[in-house]
């Protein structure tokens, strides 16, 4: 990388663009010159594309042919620390730099000049004649002090038409001004009083703040039982970062979480933070991106890609629910936001807080090894106690065919309904039934493009493929044998469970919570708030409900099938079951009434189920760690998944076989190659998928080996290869 910081007009600069090229391109610096890191617009063929000045030009060609940078965009240049970060993520995940730059510029209209809009304030003139409507407008403006409103906001607040406001403008009683659209975010005040902390919480806060004050990198695992006040505690670390004049980022796994969270931030700091997620409007995204870069957003609350925002001085990253699998992006750039948060913080001297009630084995092991500090919160806040956990042995229950709620569970729910308390029935399956079977020929309806069964969604009256999203109407006749009226649902999904609940609890108010049942994130948020306010007797939910929501009236959690995720090819099956069951159970009894969690299982003696019930977490992790250590798998060994895909299975397999035969680069670093084998989902969207797995000792330079291994490959036609370093799911 160049050490030159500034380039005069006409000097040759190397520009990294967002276009899929394997190198930077040389251009002449524009009139007025440009800084290293400047965001620029450059010509590429007939088009104009976005780029960043990456260093001095390479030259080596006729300089008269060099084209000029068209213009420098009016945004803060990319800081060196960000360039280093993007480079390291690219090396770690084997991602080309243009794709990294795309990830770091995911806001539209970055090149647009700051646009203006009209705003309205109190003027000095007097209206000729005072009407009710006019006085309401002036009242609103006086009530809000010096605040400026848009026309729409002001008219709405005052309950008048916009012509009333316009009339007042003419008379000078209201002032119309031009104001930039991308406004800085309101100042957060870290010195507003926080909540009174318990002794445990205060001690945790003290340790986090002392770390924050060092101004140096460090990671802390904040392990606290659900409801122990982890959020309250890490907000105090955020306060400390803000007091030091640095920025903070809080990553959350699920956008549905943010409504409640934003309210808590506002209560603590007096204003709302910047929000970054897929549900945000384009204008909002652009504002966040710009304001973060110029230091006018102190706190960002966001989804994983917020990690690639151009912070001016990032001092703290909190990864809440750090074990959550949604932190791993599995398309495009395959990265783990949790791991990359640690990387970014190490580069820019920030602190990291990984918060969870059920940490990932990776983080637990890093804390054991002394790489991370560990802070524990062992009891729930206030009078709330952890729920009692009990198994329901399904072998002993009298079940009618086609039903899933056992008599014991039913009894427990009825007791809660009578007392006006809420129950949650948890099943981690969307739709009505996972399988549709023809009772005449035995056919199970499958997706035409994927190696997956279609899932009936009765709510939508369609069959849906959960791999590719393809849907088709529910047929009356079997597509295989043509017999009519013999198609039958097999097994339960959330919709079918709701149907059962409606028959056995006819007087109860039942709410369903599943990501696909709501048209928008907003509608989902509204539903969650409605449930939290106590509006339902029984909530039926998928794993969406496991993620940190507070339902104060909830006192019973019934897990329909605790065995569901125990069996999988996945090396993390036990860990996932353990986390999910404890998280779901943690939804119960978060306020003043004690909670209970009942787990329906056919194998109450299974070691994982026993560990869940006994709550012996350290014991579970130690056993799990020992198992993985013996097998040499993460976090005690390294792994990478290679997926080859293409429209014909033969050629895809041939390449896989050739790769396995020429695996010297992997063996050179002490690694092994497994496969090729059909991937667990052998076909998605009509593409056949073949998988190779690389296993290597911890510390082996696995990326270098893979680069050397795949470099000689010539992928013909429509065959694609993707590499997933540290794969989280195996599909
Ligand atoms: P966690 O993040 O560990 O699940 P939260 O921070 O959400 O826990 O706390 C659980 C509940 O207890 C929240 O409603 C929170 O406002 C409340 N709470 C926690 N600590 C305190 C405190 N010191 N004072 C008042 N309320 C608290
Ligand atoms: Zn499909």
Secondary-structure map:
Layout: E1 6-7, E2 12-17, E3 25-28, E4 34-35, E5 39-44, E6 47-56, E7 71-72, H1 80-93, H2 97-104, E8 116-122, H3 132-143, H4 151-158, H5 162-170, E9 174-180, H6 199-214, E10 218-224, H7 230-243, E11 247-251, H8 258-269, E12 274-276, H9 282-293, E13 299-302, E14 314-320, H10 337-348, E15 351-356, H11 361-368, E16 373-377, E17 388-393, H12 407-419, E18 422-426, E19 435-438, E20 455-457, E21 462-464, E22 471-473, E23 487-490, H13 494-504, E24 510-513, H14 521-532, E25 538-541, E26 554-559, H15 573-585, E27 596-601, H16 607-614, H17 617-631, E28 637-646, H18 649-661, H19 664-668, E29 672-684, E30 687-697, H20 702-710, E31 720-725
Parallel strand pairs: 10-15, 10-16, 11-13, 11-14, 12-13, 14-15, 17-27, 18-25, 18-26, 24-25, 26-27
Antiparallel strand pairs: 1-4, 2-3, 2-6, 5-6, 5-7, 8-9, 19-23, 20-21, 21-22, 28-30, 28-31, 29-30
The protein binds adenosine-5'-diphosphate and zinc ion.
How many strands, what sense, and barrel or not for the largest sheet? Answer: 7 strands, parallel
The CATH topology name of the largest domain reads Rossmann fold
User: Outline, from the CA principal axes?
Assistant: globular
What is the CATH homology-level superfamily of the largest domain?
P-loop containing nucleotide triphosphate hydrolases
Number of structural units classed as domains? 5
Label the structural class: alpha/beta
Number of helices: 20
What small molecules does the structure contain? adenosine-5'-diphosphate, zinc ion
CATH hierarchy class name of the largest domain: Alpha Beta
Radius of gyration: 29 Å
């Amino acid at each position: 990388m160049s050490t030159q910081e500034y380039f005069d007009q006409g000097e040759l600069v190397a520009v990294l663009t967002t276009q899929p090229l394997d190198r930077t391109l040389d251009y002449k610096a524009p009139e007025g010159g440009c800084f290293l890191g400047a965001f620029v617009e450059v010509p590429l063929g007939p088009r104009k594309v976005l780029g960043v000045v990456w260093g001095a030009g390479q030259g080596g060609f006729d300089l008269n042919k060099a084209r000029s940078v068209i213009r420098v965009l009016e945004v803060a240049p990319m800081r060196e620390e960000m360039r280093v970060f993007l480079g390291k993520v690219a090396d770690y995940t084997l991602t080309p730099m243009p794709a990294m730059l795309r990830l770091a510029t995911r806001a539209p209209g970055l090149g647009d000049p700051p646009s203006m809009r009209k705003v309205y304030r109190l003027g000095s003139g007097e209206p000729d004649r005072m009407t009710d409507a006019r006085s309401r407008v002036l009242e609103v403006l006086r009530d809000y002090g010096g605040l400026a409103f848009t026309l729409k906001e002001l008219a709405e607040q005052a309950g008048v038409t916009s012509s009333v406001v316009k009339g007042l403008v003419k008379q000078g009683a209201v002032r119309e001004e031009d104001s930039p659209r991308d406004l800085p975010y309101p100042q957060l005040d870290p010195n507003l009083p926080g909540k009174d902390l318990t002794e445990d919480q205060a001690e945790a806060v003290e340790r986090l703040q002392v770390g924050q004050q060092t101004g140096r990198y460090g990671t802390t695992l904040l392990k606290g039982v659900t409801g122990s006040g982890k959020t309250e505690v890490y907000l105090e670390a955020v306060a400390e970062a803000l007091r030091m004049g640095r920025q903070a980022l809080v990553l959350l796994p699920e956008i549905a979480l943010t409504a409640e969270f934003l309210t808590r931030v506002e209560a603590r700091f007096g204003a709302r933070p910047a929000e970054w997620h897929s549900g945000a409007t384009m204008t909002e995204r652009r504002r966040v991106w710009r304001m973060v870069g110029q230091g006018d957003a102190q706190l960002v609350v966001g989804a994983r890609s917020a990690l690639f925002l151009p912070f001016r001085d990032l001092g703290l990253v909190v990864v809440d629910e750090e074990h959550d699998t949604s932190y791993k992006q599995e398309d495009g750039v395959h990265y783990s936001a949790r791991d990359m948060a640690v990387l970014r913080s190490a580069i820019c001297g920030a602190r990291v807080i990984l918060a969870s009630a059920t940490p990932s084995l990776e983080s637990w092991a890093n804390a054991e090894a002394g790489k991370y500090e560990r802070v524990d919160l062992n009891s729930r806040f206030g009078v709330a106690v952890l729920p009692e956990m009990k198994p329901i042995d399904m072998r002993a229950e009298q079940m009618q065919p086609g039903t899933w709620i056992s008599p014991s569970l039913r009894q427990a729910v009825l007791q809660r309904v009578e007392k006006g308390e809420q129950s949650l029935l948890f099943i981690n399956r969307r739709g009505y039934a996972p399988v549709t079977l023809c009772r005449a020929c035995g056919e199970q309806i499958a997706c035409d493009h994927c190696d997956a069964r279609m899932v009936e969604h009765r709510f939508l009256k369609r069959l849906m493929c959960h791999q590719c999203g393809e849907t088709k109407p529910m047929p009356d006749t079997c597509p295989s044998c043509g017999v009519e009226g013999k198609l039958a649902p097999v097994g339960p999904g959330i919709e079918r469970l709701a149907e059962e609940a409606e028959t056995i609890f006819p007087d109860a108010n039942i709410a369903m919570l599943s990501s696909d049942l709501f048209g928008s994130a907003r509608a989902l948020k509204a539903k969650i708030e409605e449930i939290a306010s106590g509006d339902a007797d029984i909530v039926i939910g998928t794993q969406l409900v496991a993620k940190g929501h507070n339902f104060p009236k909830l006192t019973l959690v019934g897990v329909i099938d605790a065995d569901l995720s125990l069996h999988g090819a996945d090396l993390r099956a036990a860990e996932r079951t353990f986390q999910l069951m404890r998280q779901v159970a943690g939804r119960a009894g978060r306020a003043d009434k004690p909670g209970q969690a009942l787990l329906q299982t056919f194998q109450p003696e299974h070691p994982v189920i026993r560990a869940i019930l006994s709550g012996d977490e350290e014991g579970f992790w130690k056993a799990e760690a020992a198992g993985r250590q013996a097998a040499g798998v993460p976090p005690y060994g390294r792994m990478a998944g290679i997926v080859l895909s293409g429209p014909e299975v033969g050629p895809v397999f041939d390449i896989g076989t050739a790769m396995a035969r020429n695996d010297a680069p992997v063996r050179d670093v002490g690694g092994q190659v497994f496969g090729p084998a059909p991937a667990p989902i052998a076909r998605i969207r009509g593409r056949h998928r073949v998988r190779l797995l690389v296993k290597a000792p911890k510390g082996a330079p696995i990326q270098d080996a893979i680069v050397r291994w795949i470099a000689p490959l010539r992928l013909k036609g429509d065959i694609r290869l993707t590499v997933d370093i540290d794969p989280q799911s195996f599909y």
